[in-house]
Amino acid sequence: MSDTAGTARGRLADARLYLCTDARGRQGDLAEFLDAVLAGGVDIVQLRDKGLEAAEELALLEVFADACARHGKLLAVNDRADVAHAARADVLHLGQGDLPVPAARAILGDDVLIGRSTHAEAEAAAAAVQDGVDYFCTGPCWPTPTKPGRPAPGLDLVRYTAGLGTDRPWFAIGGIDLANLDQVLDAGARGVVVVRAITEADDPGAAAADLAKRLREAR
Ligand SMILES: Cc1ncc(COP(=O)(O)OP(=O)(O)O)c(N)n1
Ligand SMILES: Cc1ncsc1CCOP(=O)(O)O
Ligand SMILES: [Mg+2]
Fold first, then answer.
1. How far apart are CA 86 and CA 142, in angstroms?
2. Any ligand 1 atom below 6 A from CB of 95
Protein backbone atom coordinates (compact mmCIF):
# COMPACT_ATOMS: atom_id res chain seq x y z
CA MET A 1 0.00 0.00 0.00
CA SER A 2 1.35 3.49 -0.84
CA ASP A 3 1.98 5.91 2.03
CA THR A 4 -0.69 8.29 0.65
CA ALA A 5 -3.48 5.66 0.59
CA GLY A 6 -6.52 7.01 2.47
CA THR A 7 -5.06 10.53 2.67
CA ALA A 8 -6.32 13.47 0.64
CA ARG A 9 -3.36 13.06 -1.73
CA GLY A 10 -4.13 9.36 -2.06
CA ARG A 11 -7.77 10.09 -2.86
CA LEU A 12 -6.67 12.70 -5.40
CA ALA A 13 -4.44 10.14 -7.11
CA ASP A 14 -7.46 7.84 -7.42
CA ALA A 15 -9.91 10.55 -8.51
CA ARG A 16 -11.42 10.37 -11.99
CA LEU A 17 -14.54 12.57 -11.86
CA TYR A 18 -14.36 16.17 -10.64
CA LEU A 19 -17.49 18.31 -10.52
CA CYS A 20 -17.65 22.09 -10.40
CA THR A 21 -21.09 23.35 -9.45
CA ASP A 22 -22.67 26.62 -8.47
CA ALA A 23 -24.88 26.85 -5.41
CA ARG A 24 -27.90 25.89 -7.54
CA GLY A 25 -29.92 28.89 -6.37
CA ARG A 26 -33.42 27.71 -5.93
CA GLN A 27 -33.06 24.56 -8.03
CA GLY A 28 -34.14 22.12 -5.35
CA ASP A 29 -32.23 21.09 -2.29
CA LEU A 30 -28.43 21.55 -2.45
CA ALA A 31 -27.66 18.79 0.06
CA GLU A 32 -29.90 16.40 -1.86
CA PHE A 33 -28.11 17.27 -5.12
CA LEU A 34 -24.70 16.77 -3.51
CA ASP A 35 -25.71 13.45 -1.95
CA ALA A 36 -26.93 12.23 -5.34
CA VAL A 37 -23.83 13.17 -7.32
CA LEU A 38 -21.36 12.03 -4.66
CA ALA A 39 -23.16 8.71 -4.32
CA GLY A 40 -23.13 8.54 -8.13
CA GLY A 41 -19.34 8.64 -8.26
CA VAL A 42 -18.08 12.23 -8.18
CA ASP A 43 -14.68 12.12 -6.43
CA ILE A 44 -14.07 15.84 -5.93
CA VAL A 45 -16.69 18.59 -5.76
CA GLN A 46 -15.91 22.29 -6.11
CA LEU A 47 -18.21 25.18 -5.29
CA ARG A 48 -17.66 27.47 -8.29
CA ASP A 49 -20.04 30.39 -8.01
CA LYS A 50 -18.24 33.53 -9.03
CA GLY A 51 -20.84 35.99 -7.71
CA LEU A 52 -20.84 34.94 -4.07
CA GLU A 53 -19.76 37.16 -1.17
CA ALA A 54 -17.17 35.44 1.04
CA ALA A 55 -19.57 35.01 3.98
CA GLU A 56 -22.22 33.46 1.75
CA GLU A 57 -19.63 31.18 0.14
CA LEU A 58 -18.44 30.04 3.57
CA ALA A 59 -21.97 29.25 4.69
CA LEU A 60 -22.63 27.24 1.52
CA LEU A 61 -19.33 25.42 1.94
CA GLU A 62 -20.63 24.00 5.23
CA VAL A 63 -23.30 22.19 3.22
CA PHE A 64 -20.63 20.96 0.78
CA ALA A 65 -18.30 19.90 3.61
CA ASP A 66 -21.04 17.92 5.35
CA ALA A 67 -21.89 16.13 2.11
CA CYS A 68 -18.23 15.37 1.35
CA ALA A 69 -17.75 14.02 4.88
CA ARG A 70 -20.82 11.77 4.51
CA HIS A 71 -19.40 10.30 1.31
CA GLY A 72 -15.66 10.41 2.02
CA LYS A 73 -15.02 12.70 -0.97
CA LEU A 74 -12.81 15.77 -1.47
CA LEU A 75 -14.09 19.33 -1.09
CA ALA A 76 -12.58 21.99 -3.35
CA VAL A 77 -12.76 25.79 -3.16
CA ASN A 78 -12.24 27.96 -6.23
CA ASP A 79 -9.89 30.95 -6.38
CA ARG A 80 -9.68 32.03 -2.71
CA ALA A 81 -7.07 30.68 -0.29
CA ASP A 82 -8.63 32.54 2.65
CA VAL A 83 -11.99 30.92 2.04
CA ALA A 84 -10.39 27.49 1.52
CA HIS A 85 -8.59 27.89 4.86
CA ALA A 86 -11.69 29.05 6.72
CA ALA A 87 -13.79 26.25 5.23
CA ARG A 88 -11.14 23.62 6.04
CA ALA A 89 -11.34 22.53 2.41
CA ASP A 90 -9.24 19.68 1.07
CA VAL A 91 -8.42 21.46 -2.19
CA LEU A 92 -7.92 24.97 -3.56
CA HIS A 93 -8.14 25.47 -7.33
CA LEU A 94 -6.17 28.33 -8.88
CA GLY A 95 -6.35 29.65 -12.45
CA GLN A 96 -3.50 31.37 -14.28
CA GLY A 97 -4.73 34.76 -13.11
CA ASP A 98 -5.48 33.77 -9.54
CA LEU A 99 -3.19 33.89 -6.52
CA PRO A 100 0.30 32.51 -7.32
CA VAL A 101 0.83 29.03 -5.89
CA PRO A 102 3.59 30.04 -3.38
CA ALA A 103 1.30 32.75 -1.97
CA ALA A 104 -1.53 30.25 -1.57
CA ARG A 105 0.86 27.75 0.02
CA ALA A 106 1.98 30.39 2.52
CA ILE A 107 -1.65 30.71 3.63
CA LEU A 108 -2.63 27.05 3.49
CA GLY A 109 0.48 25.12 4.48
CA ASP A 110 1.32 21.74 2.97
CA ASP A 111 -1.77 19.70 3.76
CA VAL A 112 -4.28 21.42 1.47
CA LEU A 113 -4.09 20.22 -2.13
CA ILE A 114 -3.60 22.90 -4.78
CA GLY A 115 -4.74 22.61 -8.38
CA ARG A 116 -3.93 24.78 -11.36
CA SER A 117 -5.69 25.56 -14.65
CA THR A 118 -3.69 25.30 -17.88
CA HIS A 119 -4.71 26.32 -21.39
CA ALA A 120 -1.51 25.89 -23.41
CA GLU A 121 1.36 23.44 -23.74
CA ALA A 122 3.86 25.59 -21.83
CA GLU A 123 1.39 26.04 -18.96
CA ALA A 124 0.70 22.30 -18.75
CA ALA A 125 4.40 21.45 -18.86
CA ALA A 126 5.06 23.97 -16.07
CA ALA A 127 2.17 22.75 -13.90
CA ALA A 128 3.41 19.19 -14.23
CA VAL A 129 6.62 20.09 -12.38
CA GLN A 130 5.92 23.27 -10.40
CA ASP A 131 6.54 22.97 -6.64
CA GLY A 132 3.39 23.17 -4.57
CA VAL A 133 1.04 22.02 -7.34
CA ASP A 134 -0.80 18.76 -6.61
CA TYR A 135 -2.85 18.46 -9.82
CA PHE A 136 -3.67 20.46 -12.91
CA CYS A 137 -6.42 20.76 -15.50
CA THR A 138 -6.05 21.20 -19.25
CA GLY A 139 -8.59 22.71 -21.58
CA PRO A 140 -11.14 23.68 -22.62
CA CYS A 141 -11.46 20.61 -24.83
CA TRP A 142 -14.41 22.31 -26.54
CA PRO A 143 -15.67 25.91 -26.34
CA THR A 144 -18.09 26.15 -23.45
CA PRO A 145 -20.64 28.70 -22.25
CA THR A 146 -19.52 27.89 -18.70
CA LYS A 147 -16.25 29.74 -19.38
CA PRO A 148 -17.19 32.37 -21.97
CA GLY A 149 -14.36 33.93 -23.95
CA ARG A 150 -11.88 31.18 -23.14
CA PRO A 151 -10.46 29.84 -26.47
CA ALA A 152 -10.39 26.05 -26.65
CA PRO A 153 -7.00 24.41 -27.31
CA GLY A 154 -8.99 21.23 -27.86
CA LEU A 155 -7.93 17.62 -27.61
CA ASP A 156 -4.44 18.47 -28.94
CA LEU A 157 -3.62 19.83 -25.49
CA VAL A 158 -4.94 16.65 -23.87
CA ARG A 159 -2.73 14.58 -26.20
CA TYR A 160 0.24 16.82 -25.42
CA THR A 161 -0.35 16.54 -21.67
CA ALA A 162 -0.68 12.76 -21.83
CA GLY A 163 2.63 12.74 -23.72
CA LEU A 164 4.36 14.46 -20.79
CA GLY A 165 4.07 11.15 -18.96
CA THR A 166 3.73 12.94 -15.65
CA ASP A 167 2.83 11.09 -12.45
CA ARG A 168 1.06 14.22 -11.22
CA PRO A 169 -2.74 13.88 -11.41
CA TRP A 170 -4.34 15.93 -14.20
CA PHE A 171 -7.84 16.33 -15.60
CA ALA A 172 -9.27 17.41 -18.94
CA ILE A 173 -11.97 20.11 -18.79
CA GLY A 174 -14.39 22.00 -20.99
CA GLY A 175 -17.43 20.80 -22.88
CA ILE A 176 -17.06 17.20 -21.75
CA ASP A 177 -20.11 14.95 -21.51
CA LEU A 178 -20.95 11.28 -21.82
CA ALA A 179 -21.28 11.54 -25.61
CA ASN A 180 -17.72 12.81 -26.16
CA LEU A 181 -16.00 11.25 -23.13
CA ASP A 182 -14.45 8.45 -25.20
CA GLN A 183 -12.68 11.04 -27.40
CA VAL A 184 -11.18 12.60 -24.26
CA LEU A 185 -10.10 9.20 -22.95
CA ASP A 186 -8.68 8.23 -26.35
CA ALA A 187 -6.63 11.45 -26.27
CA GLY A 188 -5.01 10.19 -23.08
CA ALA A 189 -6.94 11.68 -20.15
CA ARG A 190 -7.80 9.49 -17.19
CA GLY A 191 -9.78 12.09 -15.26
CA VAL A 192 -12.22 14.83 -16.25
CA VAL A 193 -13.79 17.94 -14.78
CA VAL A 194 -17.39 18.65 -15.75
CA VAL A 195 -20.00 21.28 -15.00
CA ARG A 196 -23.07 21.10 -17.25
CA ALA A 197 -22.87 17.36 -17.94
CA ILE A 198 -24.02 16.88 -14.36
CA THR A 199 -25.55 20.17 -13.22
CA GLU A 200 -27.89 20.41 -16.22
CA ALA A 201 -28.82 16.72 -16.33
CA ASP A 202 -32.42 15.76 -15.63
CA ASP A 203 -31.05 13.24 -13.14
CA PRO A 204 -27.67 14.53 -11.87
CA GLY A 205 -27.00 11.41 -9.80
CA ALA A 206 -27.52 9.14 -12.79
CA ALA A 207 -25.39 11.42 -15.00
CA ALA A 208 -22.56 11.24 -12.45
CA ALA A 209 -22.90 7.46 -12.25
CA ASP A 210 -22.75 7.08 -16.06
CA LEU A 211 -19.63 9.25 -16.32
CA ALA A 212 -17.95 7.57 -13.34
CA LYS A 213 -18.65 4.09 -14.71
CA ARG A 214 -17.15 4.94 -18.11
CA LEU A 215 -14.09 6.53 -16.48
CA ARG A 216 -13.50 3.50 -14.23
CA GLU A 217 -13.96 1.07 -17.14
CA ALA A 218 -11.28 2.97 -19.08
CA ARG A 219 -8.60 2.44 -16.43
C1 LIG B 1 -11.03 21.90 -11.44
C2 LIG B 1 -11.05 23.23 -12.12
N3 LIG B 1 -10.40 23.37 -13.30
C4 LIG B 1 -10.41 24.57 -13.90
C5 LIG B 1 -11.06 25.63 -13.33
C6 LIG B 1 -11.01 26.99 -13.96
O7 LIG B 1 -10.25 27.90 -13.16
P8 LIG B 1 -9.97 29.37 -13.71
O9 LIG B 1 -9.23 29.23 -14.98
O10 LIG B 1 -9.34 30.17 -12.64
O11 LIG B 1 -11.43 29.92 -14.01
P12 LIG B 1 -12.61 30.14 -12.96
O13 LIG B 1 -13.24 28.82 -12.68
O14 LIG B 1 -12.04 30.73 -11.71
O15 LIG B 1 -13.55 31.04 -13.66
C16 LIG B 1 -11.72 25.43 -12.11
N17 LIG B 1 -12.40 26.42 -11.48
N18 LIG B 1 -11.70 24.22 -11.52
C1 LIG C 1 -14.27 26.49 -15.48
C2 LIG C 1 -13.76 26.08 -16.81
N3 LIG C 1 -12.46 26.29 -17.15
C4 LIG C 1 -12.17 25.83 -18.38
S5 LIG C 1 -13.53 25.17 -19.15
C6 LIG C 1 -14.51 25.47 -17.77
C7 LIG C 1 -15.96 25.15 -17.69
C8 LIG C 1 -16.34 23.75 -18.04
O9 LIG C 1 -17.72 23.64 -17.98
P10 LIG C 1 -18.59 22.62 -18.84
O11 LIG C 1 -18.25 21.27 -18.34
O12 LIG C 1 -20.02 23.02 -18.54
O13 LIG C 1 -18.24 22.84 -20.28
MG1 LIG D 1 -10.08 30.99 -10.95
1. 34
2. yes
